[in-house]
Amino acid sequence: MTLNAPFVKPSVLPxxxxxxxxxxxxxxxxxLLPLGALLYRASSLGVHEIVALALDSRTLxxxxxxxxxxxxxxxxxVPFGLLIAWVLVRYDFPGRRFFDAIIDLPFAxxxxxxxxxxxxxxxxxxxxxxxxxxxxxxIAFTPIGVFLALVFVGLPFIVRTVQPVLAEVDRExxxxxxxxxxxxxxxIASVVLPVLSPAILTGxxxxxxxxxxxxxxxxxxxxxxxxVSEIAPLLIVIKLEEFDYAGATAVAAIMLAISFATLLFIxxxxxxARARYGHV
Length: 280
Hints:
By secondary structure, the protein is mostly helical. It has 13 helices and no strands.
């Protein structure tokens, strides 16, 4: 019996039933089952206890620091990541391949090593921290240090999502805009950025998602001071060390809900951009 569902597009390759069954099974085992177990364990507390935990001042402080700093770091990476991608794609210069390879370093570098390296730089006795200290600027062991760590781990997501799309942009469109009298800024704003906007939003979402769950590179430079530089993932670890498993899963469930809502909103904006400009 042939499956003629309206959502199945014609294809020369058979195997829709097998592939969709494998996809559902794989996603259920790898993604849905662990998340379901997390929500089930958190539900053992009851609604009132979860709400009380969510409104606890320490939990709110940790969630605020994690999500606001992650959003700020991802937004900060957008213009600089776009600029780096532009330079790597549009210009040929000595050492370009070397700099292109460096972009992937945060992917390959263990997060603990990144945290130690950043702390060595920005601590009060570090190379940069020692220079900033006389001006009363403390970087490490503050939210600024958390922000810098999240910028470090999130930059490659912006560059690598924008880079291939930028390489495929037809330069004739820019030349046509120039012949019509558009200046460089007008050409970038009206021709280039609309084409890149879906890729930029994708990179932003990936950088934000990575930053929210980042742990290894942050705990060293953050100082982990409650109400000051304590991130939500660390609060979960602390509750686990205190054998408060229900509390840890409740905080994780709260993070999951906030992350899902934020990423859903970003994806809706991204889908609208794709529909408007017709680019992936």
